[in-house]
Design brief:
- This protein is of the alpha+beta class and about 160 residues long.
- Helices cover about 20% and strands about 30% of the residues.
- It has three helices and seven strands, in the order E-E-E-E-H-E-E-E-H-H.
- The strands form two sheets. Strands 4-1-6-5 form a four-stranded mixed β-sheet, sandwiched between helices. The protein has a three-stranded antiparallel β-sheet with strand order 3-2-7.
- The protein is globular.
- It starts with about 25 loop residues before the first strand and ends in a 5-residue tail after the last helix.
Amino acid sequence: MAQSSRSMEARTGRNNQRYGSQGERLVAGVVPLSNDKTKVLVIQSTRRGGWVLPKGGWETDEKTAQEAACREAWEEAGVHCTVQRDLGTIPEMRPASQLSSQAPKALYQFYEVRVDKEEAKYPEASKRARQWMSYTQAKQALATRPELMEALNRSSITR
């Protein structure tokens, strides 16, 4: 999804956050694949360390979860992307011990995207590394996040 202008500031806070009917935070994310679908781009988590997929809150000024997902891909991974496929919703899979006010229960909406361009400068470049991984590498890196593994498994990445 193309955006006409991209902010160099990442959105913060949850004032404009959308919530579902059960009070769960609505989160939009992407599975960013290389053109040949042999690699996925993962980013460093700012809270727990390790690797995650780009994702974040769907906000009230965004018409669609797809729009929010593409914004998150820009802010967190510095990529311009094109949505290829809707991967559907994924319910919260983390155990209660991993949930907190900073990481509340969520309902995830993921999209498979093609990475069209990677920028050197992007809003969260100073706090997040990014890395291209094979399916096998990503499976290991995302092992503690079953909802992210589910999104990866729904994608068309080469296994």
